Amino acid sequence: METFNIILIAAPLIFLLLLYIILSNRLTFRRNQAENAFASLDAYLKKRFDLIPNLVAAVQQYMGHEKSVLTEITALRSEAMKSGLSSDEVIEINNRMNRAMRSVNVAMENYPDLKSNTNILQLQASLNEVEEQISAARRAYNASVLAFNNGVQLFPSSLIASIRGFSPKPYLETPDTERNNIDVNSLFNSRR
Taking the domains of the chain in order of start, what are their residue ranges? Predict the structure, then answer.
């Protein structure tokens, strides 16, 4: 009878311990997936920032009076290359870089010679390829964050998450300014 009582007491404790281990490991796995997805995104952002000096150097030959935009892009690149940036800082720099690069693309429309230059065309093609890779990496990161955040917020794994100190991760969101349609006409008129 004593053995039976020990089993009755031990079985639920063992079950709870196994449940804790399984849920804890699942949360850790999902957190690591999200961090890996962010690292992939970060690698593509670095690739983009490595292409930018070549594009800026080539474009500067044609766009002497657009130096403020080119200077901003160079400064953002330097800022992005610093070590120890948090994921939120990387995201903010990326958003600012997106706005600056959009300005360069619109400004380049004013220079027909620039648009036909083979070096510029190759650099733009490389940059477009990296932008597509960044877009795919953003989607992968957000999918990983969704899985992790669900684990952190849904019962019963939310109990384990609170014990382990896990909190939801932020999504990479498109800023409102990038969701709006660009009024190209006003951009051309503001350059004159």
Answer: 2-190
